[in-house]
Design a protein that fits this description.
Blueprint lengths: L16 H27 L14 H94 L7 H12 L4 E2 L8 E2 L1 H10 L9 H4 L4 E3 L9 E4 L7 E7 L2 E7 L3 E6 L7 E4 L2
Parallel strand pairs: 1-2
Antiparallel strand pairs: 3-8, 4-5, 4-8, 5-6, 6-7
Length: about 280
């Protein structure tokens, strides 16, 4: 036996490890149980159920959607209407342009036809005068010469005759236009009619009627103011005014206009006296 075997030790006795572990396990288990109970406590309570009423927006939304749809439909209708109006305007403009072109074409055609008719009438008038001049040259030549000598002493007109002659001479140089009645262009009968109207005597408009408007007089007994005509009485194709001195004033043709010429230039067929 050791000599120290009965000497008491001053060290604290060592705890048994197994007891310590057991104590720690028990404590941990308690704590775990408490933790689990604490954690599970609220979860086991009856859940709270609460219904939250949301504001009803169905009515307002429907109204807005309907208004939007209506506005969209209106815009579509407006666009369609505008497109139709634009198409109609384009069609109308095209039609108007075509109508205008057609009117211009017709006006030009009418103008050409009138010019051709006028040229034809003037050509016929010149041809008729030429024929009449040839036919009457033998029969009226001596009479015209007699008229010149017989009337040379009465070349100074007075009264209404002087006024008629003055009016006719005032138009010398004006243009000849078939169908025109003045004031700057005439045909043969309109000049005679206007000259006599200046002294308040109304004559018929055309040559045929003017050749029978007064008293028939011989070409050998002419007086200033007498109406000369070419062709037959009642079927005359030209007229003029005798101004005395063996001369007359008349709107002859488009080439000469209103001129004063001797009777020998274009011997007349007959004469009538109105004054």
């Amino acid at each position: 036996m050791s000599h120290t075997a009965h000497i008491p030790s001053h060290r604290k006795p060592r705890r048994n490890a197994s007891k310590t572990a057991l104590r720690a396990g028990v404590a941990g288990g308690v704590l775990s149980t408490i933790a689990v109970a604490g954690a599970a406590g609220p979860a086991q309570a009856e859940p709270v159920t609460q219904t939250i009423e949301m504001p009803t927006i169905t009515s307002g939304l429907s109204t807005a959607v309907a208004a939007s749809a209506q506005a969209t439909q209106q815009v579509a209708q407006d666009l369609q209407t505008q497109a139709q109006e634009d198409a109609a305007a384009a069609t109308a403009a095209k039609t108007a342009k075509k109508a205008k072109a057609e009117a211009v074409r017709k006006a030009e055609a009418k103008k050409k036809a009138e010019a051709a008719a006028k040229a034809k009438a003037e050509a016929a008038e010149r041809a008729s005068r030429s024929t009449a001049r040839t036919t009457l040259s033998a029969t009226s030549g001596s009479s015209a010469g007699t008229a010149v000598s017989a009337s040379s002493s009465s070349s100074s007109a007075t009264g209404s005759a002087a006024a008629v002659i003055a009016f006719a001479k005032a138009q010398l140089g004006d243009a000849y236009v078939l169908g025109s009645t003045g004031p700057s262009s005439w045909d043969c009968s309109s000049l005679v009619q206007a000259a006599f109207r200046s002294v308040n005597i109304d004559l018929p408009r055309v040559s045929q009627s003017q050749s029978t408007a007064g008293t028939q007089v011989s070409l050998s007994n002419l007086q200033p103011g007498d109406i000369l005509y070419w062709g037959g009485a009642g079927s005359a194709y030209h007229v003029g005014i005798y101004v005395g001195g063996g001369e007359f004033v008349g709107a002859q043709n488009s080439g000469t206009g209103v001129v004063q010429r001797p009777l020998s230039y274009d011997p007349p067929s007959g004469a009538v006296r109105v004054l």
